[in-house]
C-alpha cells in the first residue's frame, strides 16, 4: 500500500517536470520570436535578431519632383516660331537690305569704257579687260544668284535709246526667274545718253517696290529731268511718296567725265541715298 503511494507520487512528479519543461520551451521560443527574450542570469549570452532597416518614404517625393522638373520647359529655350530674317543682297560687295527690290541699271554709251582692272564673274572666271558693261552684268548675276527665295524682284535698264523693264511686277526669286533675269540683262549693249530719272521712275512704278538699287556710270544729261539738281530732287520726292529706300552706285565716274562734272553726278547720288535711308557706294 505504501509502495503504491510512492509509485503514484513519483509518477506525478515526472509528469509535472515534463509539463514545466514544455511550457518553458514554448515561452522561450515565443520570446525569441518577439525579440524580448531575456537571459536567465548575467553570464548567459543570447544573440537576438537585428531589425531590418526600413526605407525612408522621402524618395517618393524626390522622384515626383524630378518628374515634374522634366515636364517643365527650359526657361531659355529658343522660340522655334521666330521667323527667319531675309539676308541682305550683295551688289558690288555692298549689302542692300530689302525683300521687294528693283535693280535700275545704266546701259548708256559710256558703259563701253574699260574698268581698268580684271574682274571675276558669277562662276569665278576672271575677265581680264572688262568694260563697265561687263562689270555690271557680272555683279547683277552675283547679286541675283545670292538672293533668298523670300525676295521678290525685277530689273530696269535705262538709256536714251529706251527704258526697258524686265517684268512690270515683282517676281519670286526662284532659280528659273533668276536665270531669266540674268539672261535678259546680258542681252544689252551700251548706247545712248543718260536719262536717270526716267529709268528710276519705271522701277518705282512697279507695284510693291520698297527698295531700288540705282546704278549709273554717268551724269544725267537727258530725259524728263536732264540736270543733276532737278533730277536728284525729283527722284527723292518720288521715292518718299512711295516709301522707297534707294541705294545708289556711282560706277567709275571719273573714267569718262571731268572731275567737276563727275563730282556733280556723285553728289546727286549721295543726296538721293541720304534722303531716302539708303547708302551711296563708289565703284571703281
Q: Please, how many domains?
A: 2
Q: Uncertain runs with pLDDT below 50, 5 residues or more?
A: 16-39, 44-50, 55-82
Helix and strand element order? HHEEEEEHEEEHHEHEHE
Structural class: alpha/beta
For the report, how would you describe the main beta sheet?
A: 7 strands, mixed
Helical percentage: 40-55%
Strand content: 15-25%
CATH homologous superfamily caption of the largest domain: von Willebrand factor, type A domain
Written account of the structure:
It is a single chain. The chain folds into 2 domains: 9-42; 89-283, 3-Layer(aba) Sandwich (Rossmann fold), CATH 3.40.50.410. It contains 7 helices and 11 strands. Residues 16-39, 44-50 and 55-82 have low confidence and may be disordered. With 284 residues, it is an alpha/beta fold. Helix 7 links the parallel strand 10 (245-251) and strand 11 (280-283). The protein has helices at residues 2-33, 58-71, 132-145, 175-186, 196-204, 228-242, 259-276, and strands at residues 89-91, 94-96, 100-106, 119-120, 126-127, 152-159, 162-165, 171-172, 211-216, 245-251, 280-283.
List the helices and strands and how they pair.
Layout: H1 2-33, H2 58-71, E1 89-91, E2 94-96, E3 100-106, E4 119-120, E5 126-127, H3 132-145, E6 152-159, E7 162-165, E8 171-172, H4 175-186, H5 196-204, E9 211-216, H6 228-242, E10 245-251, H7 259-276, E11 280-283
Amino acid at each position: 500500500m505504501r509502495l503504491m503511494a510512492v509509485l503514484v507520487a513519483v509518477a506525478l512528479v515526472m509528469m509535472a517536470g515534463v509539463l514545466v519543461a514544455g511550457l518553458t520551451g514554448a515561452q522561450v521560443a515565443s520570446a525569441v520570436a518577439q525579440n524580448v527574450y531575456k537571459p536567465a542570469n548575467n553570464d548567459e549570452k543570447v544573440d537576438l535578431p537585428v531589425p531590418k532597416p526600413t526605407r525612408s518614404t522621402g524618395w517618393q517625393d524626390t522622384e515626383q519632383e524630378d518628374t515634374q522638373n522634366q515636364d517643365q520647359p527650359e526657361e531659355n529655350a529658343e522660340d522655334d516660331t521666330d521667323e527667319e530674317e531675309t539676308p541682305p543682297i550683295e551688289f558690288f560687295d555692298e549689302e542692300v537690305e530689302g525683300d521687294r527690290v528693283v535693280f535700275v541699271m545704266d546701259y548708256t554709251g559710256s558703259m563701253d569704257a574699260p574698268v581698268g582692272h580684271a574682274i571675276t564673274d558669277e562662276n569665278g572666271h576672271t575677265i581680264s579687260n572688262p568694260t563697265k558693261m561687263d562689270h555690271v552684268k557680272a555683279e547683277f548675276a552675283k547679286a541675283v544668284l545670292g538672293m533668298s527665295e523670300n525676295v521678290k524682284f525685277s530689273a530696269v535698264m535705262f538709256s536714251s535709246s529706251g527704258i526697258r523693264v524686265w517684268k512690270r511686277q515683282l517676281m519670286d526669286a526662284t532659280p528659273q526667274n533668276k536665270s531669266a533675269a540674268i539672261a535678259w540683262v546680258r542681252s544689252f549693249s551700251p548706247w545712248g545718253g543718260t536719262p536717270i530719272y526716267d529709268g528710276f521712275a519705271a522701277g518705282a512704278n512697279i507695284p510693291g517696290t520698297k527698295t531700288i538699287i540705282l546704278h549709273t556710270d554717268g551724269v544725267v544729261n537727258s530725259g524728263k529731268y536732264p540736270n543733276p539738281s532737278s533730277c536728284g530732287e525729283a527722284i527723292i520726292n518720288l521715292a518718299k511718296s512711295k516709301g522707297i529706300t534707294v541705294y545708289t552706285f556711282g560706277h567709275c565716274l571719273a573714267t569718262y567725265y571731268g572731275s567737276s562734272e563727275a563730282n556733280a553726278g556723285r553728289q546727286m547720288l549721295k543726296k538721293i541715298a541720304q534722303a531716302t535711308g539708303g547708302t551711296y557706294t563708289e565703284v571703281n
